[in-house]
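Quick one - inputs below.
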Amino acid sequence: MMVNRTQELEEALAAALSELRAAKSKIEYLETAAETNERLVDGGAEALRMAHWHAEFSDIAARLAHVGGWRVDLSNLHVFWSPATANIHDEPHDISPTLEAALDYYTPQHRDRMSALFSACAKHGHPFDEVLQIVTAKGRHVWVRSIGEAVQDDAGRIVAVEGALQDVSDLVAARDKSEDLSRRLYQTLESINDAFVLLDHDWRFLFVNAQAEALWQRSRDDLLGNSIWEEYPEAVGNSFHVHYQRAVAEGRAVQFQEFTPIFDKWFEVDAHPTPEGLAIYFRDITQQRVRDHQLRLLEAAVSRQNDILLITEAEPIDGPDGPKIVYVNEAFERRTGFSCKDVIGQTPRILQGPKTQRDELKRIRHALEQWQSVRAELINYTKSGEEFWLELDIVPLANEAGNLTHWVAIERDITERKEFEERLWIAATRDTLTGLFNRTVLREALDQRLQEMQETDGSLALLIVDIDGFKNVNDTLGHDHGDVLLANIAKRIKSAVRGSDKVARINGDEFMVLANNSTAQDTALLAQRLLDSFRVPFILYGRSIAITASIGIVIAPQDGDDPEVLIRNADIAMYQSKAAGRNMFTRFKPSMLEEVLRRTEIEQALQYSLFTGNDDFLLVYQPQVTCDARRKVVGLEALVRWQGAKHGSVGPAEFIPIAEASGLIRPLDHLVIELAATQIATWAKAGIAVPVSVNVSAISMQTEDFAREVLQHLARHGVKHSLFQIEIVETVYLDESSTTLENLSTFWKAGICISIDDFGTGHSSLSYLRRLPAKFLKMDRSFVEHVGIGLTDEDALAEAILAMARALNIDVIAEGVETEAQFNWLVQNGCTQVQGYFTGRPISPQLLEAQYLT
Ligand code: C2E
Ligand code: MG
Ligand code: MG
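Output:
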């Protein structure tokens, strides 16, 4: 563009200069000719004078110079025209007009002037020589030089005026044209945006345009006529100097770019030798240099930047051809494996593959169709087919006219971020141990399903599956084995459900299954399949482990439509399964909720009683008597009674399990021991020394330092260890945890007798008795219930327990003896002691003292 403009200017200037030169030389020629003419005219006049008015002009001279003669005789005011003069007027040669008629040939502007000139000459002898315009007979406008002189007679009177007439139209036209050209050239040179100077052959300023004045901040009056090297001596010898000299010496144009420190500017300079000297244009390209430099920097930066850059043509956005790629940077080549050559002319579609998100592409296309920028995250493919994630910003690029020409896509590889997000997602949604969903995801799925059910009919079943006795596995095999077992359990659950069912682990050993559109019957079958899946024992490191589960079921919308409520109800149903003996499933019933509510209320009231008024609790005592006719009271079992304000009638069979489940049993056990110790001390003071046995929960036995604290209680009250006994259920003996064993052995070493309560209801394995001997076995009421009435099987069971205890040298206390028949049978079969309504109900200390102890 720059070159074109220069060329144009150069051509215009050359043309203008050559025209100027042509015009000048024509002027010069004509001027020379005019000089000749003048001489000719003078000569003509002389000749006229000499030959009087008869004399003829030389035809050749007249033709050459378009010069004619004329004469006006003042006596008759008739005009004589030479043939050349007649020719100039486009009139026939023989015409001889009157003065008036001759003057009428002059244009209206010039007629008066001519008339005045003539009069002055005729009256006063003033000669004239003027260029004026006539209109010929043919209507041509002709510039003529009219010369006139007075002719005097011998007496000195003016008798005639004679002169010459020359057609000077060419001269005038040439002069006009020359003036016009100079003006145009001047205007051109003034108006161009470049600074322009013309130097003559001695390097002097011939012309300086306004831009040059502005650029150098010098007026042209200052510069014109002065040598450039005198004005700018510092430029002598520098590259400007060298280039100009070369241009002049070689007679050809030079073009160069140079920085000029004095102006602090970059110039592009064109120097053209001309006949006059040297024409020089200066264009300030400082801005452009800066832009070029920036552009180069930008290009380097773009090609080397880490972001992938891809430029395509604007259209077609759609269609098989798609927009063609016109540029890709190095980062693109590095990441995709495609070289620039591979992709230029192709469409970006070559980067797409099977996993590229169609809907995302659609969205991009839609935005592009609207000429809108768009941001997207896309799966792309490298040349070798490796898949990677790109985040791309696509922006439209418009030309100066505002038409969209290209799309620029700036892209970043976000594969790592995506992988990280995926890992995060898995971590956030999956249970790491089993690979099942976690609670949050299942909860969300439940919410969503319930939402859907509001719009379309449908149902869902929610099952909570709790592994029975999993704590024992953990405690006996260790947590690592427990984890492996859980993972295997998860697999069995997974295999028992349908593919569309969602399974989550929601707690240590608790799983949840969400089944869509499951009827009550379907769900029961599903629950049974789950239970069946555990039937085959698990094999863990060579050990066979039998596992069962308790399942609670809710079905929505029948059992509720709130997610929280549904989960709670499934939980309640699951606990019901546990309470009812485990390894079973239970569908939620509203009555269960009532029971739970009652349990919750009791728990809260218990807590309130325990921490506000210990007076709510008191102990009753049931005699343990010798199993013979004497029925001598040899011991008392302390049994707690609760007089809670609202729950006066709640017995220990109900509130003790609640206290155990809530942990309230610990403070309760302490309280009972305290009350019992007080009572023993009171009786001791009164001389009553009967051993009192206190029930201690398994949970307290699992509590560190429990035995030591009990001993402290006793010491505080000065209670002899021989008068204090404890009763524990047999599972405590099965508990191999070190804390329980420590507590047991502390009691044993302190000489406190231990009774095994409810014997026969738990895992009856007497091997544990070898480790820590118990003083008594309390044969559970269920064994006593049917003895002595002739049921041989029942009798045999009770006999076996009695025989076994004897073999182990342990005394047996039969519980719940209500009838004489039972009592007699026990006496006959060698039972040690009995305790039951038959021999004495649990009663207050006062009653007890009155009835038995005095
Ligand atoms: P347990 O230790 O087996 O206590 C004997 C239970 O049998 C007592 O019920 C007692 O009243 C009842 N009983 C005694 N003789 C007969 C009889 O001839 N027929 C019938 N049907 N029942 C008889 P209670 O007092 O309701 O206690 C129930 C259970 O609550 C106790 O069973 C014991 O496990 C627990 N418990 C009671 N008091 C305490 C306590 O202070 N601490 C702890 N940890 N548990 C206690
Ligand atoms: Mg007991
Ligand atoms: Mg008992």
